[in-house]
Design a protein that fits this description.
By secondary structure, the protein is an all-alpha fold. The protein has three helices and no strands. The longest helix has 30 residues.
């Protein structure tokens, strides 16, 4: 919504932790620049890392509710 580099540094740090930032970079690169998988691999692993961490937290919390 806003230019990423135009935001304050603290807001850029928060934005880097959100998977939507990386998803938008991937989509923009594919649609506008015609990037392939090799070009978007950097952003892809960051989304995958976020998914693994979120899944681990969800499994841990789910196990706690079964006891």
């Amino acid at each position: 919504m806003f230019p990423f580099r135009g935001m304050p540094l603290w807001a850029q740090w928060i934005g880097e932790m959100m998977p939507l930032t990386h998803f938008l970079r991937i989509v923009r690169g594919i649609l506008l620049k015609g990037n392939g998988f090799a070009d978007v691999a950097q952003e892809t692993w960051q989304i995958a890392l976020f998914a693994v961490v979120a899944l681990a937290v969800a499994v841990k919390r789910y196990k706690q509710t079964l006891d």
